[in-house]
């Protein structure tokens, strides 16, 4: 009886320490502002650039042909300042991901980041680029490292990770639900 009381008392005392900080999800750096991105860009017949970011609060932030946009470098890295500038040109979509759902998919990011991606294949012309990306933030370097989960369009590739496929399907569902 006394052991059970100690166990419940310990849980009761530690429970408040596990909640409250909405950004401390699944081992992700609490200073990470952006978790996921769906990005479409095409230069055929004019320039189209649209997509959305999902922030650490679960807000889905849309962008459509922004005047300025910071693209990641060849290693898929953006500085925190560049990401902050990208966030500023986004508009709230009115969609907010539930905490439970956000925790679920954010929990996959580290696993996805360690996975291999298939070789890029040229599969079409004038189809643009549709990318599904997850991010990890490095506080030491003050940068976001993007991990391609899937790319479709002129070129295609995809992560071989099981969780990346689930996350891509989730992002597709969010994209389909966005007001047009």
Structural features, described:
With 180 residues, the chain is α+β, with helices and mostly antiparallel strands. The protein contains five helices and nine strands. Strands 1, 2, 3, 4, 5, 6, 7, 8 and 9 form a nine-stranded antiparallel sheet that branches. The longest helix has 17 residues, at 2-18.
Give the helix level as a range of percent: 25-40%
Determine the mean pLDDT: 89
Unreliable residue stretches: 1-22
User: How many DSSP-defined strands?
Assistant: 9
Strand content: 25-35%
Biggest sheet details: 9 strands, antiparallel
For the record, give the distance between the C-alpha atoms at the N and C termini, rounded to a whole number: 59 Å
Q: Measured on Cα atoms, how large is the radius of gyration? A: 19 Å
Shape category: globular
**Structural class assignment:** alpha+beta
| Separate helix tally | 5
Question: Mind sketching the topology for me?
Answer:
Elements lengths: L1 H17 L15 E9 L5 E8 L3 E6 L12 E3 H9 L2 E6 L2 H8 L2 H5 L7 E2 L6 E10 L4 E11 L1 E4 L3 H16 L3
Antiparallel strand pairs: 1-2, 1-7, 2-3, 3-5, 4-8, 6-9, 7-8, 8-9
Compact summary:
With 180 residues, the chain is an alpha+beta fold. It has five helices and nine strands; from the N terminus they run H-E-E-E-E-H-E-H-H-E-E-E-E-H. Strands 1, 2, 3, 4, 5, 6, 7, 8 and 9 form a nine-stranded antiparallel beta sheet that branches.
């Amino acid at each position: 009886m006394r052991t059970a009381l100690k166990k419940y008392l310990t849980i009761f005392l530690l429970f408040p320490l596990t909640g409250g900080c909405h950004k401390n999800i699944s081992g992700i750096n609490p200073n990470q502002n952006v978790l996921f991105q769906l990005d479409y860009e095409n230069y055929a017949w004019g320039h189209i650039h649209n997509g959305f970011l999902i922030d650490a609060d679960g807000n889905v932030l849309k962008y459509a042909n922004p005047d300025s946009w910071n693209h990641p470098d060849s290693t898929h890295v953006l500085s925190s300042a560049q990401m902050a500038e990208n966030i500023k040109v986004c508009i709230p979509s009115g969609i907010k991901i539930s905490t439970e759902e956000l925790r679920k998919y954010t929990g996959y990011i580290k696993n996805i980041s360690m996975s291999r991606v298939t070789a890029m294949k040229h599969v079409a012309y004038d189809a643009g680029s549709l990318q599904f990306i997850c991010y990890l933030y490095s506080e030491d370097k003050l940068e976001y490292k993007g991990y391609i989960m899937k790319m479709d369009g002129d070129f295609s590739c995809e992560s071989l990770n099981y969780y990346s496929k689930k996350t891509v399907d989730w992002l597709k569902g969010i994209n389909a639900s966005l007001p047009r």
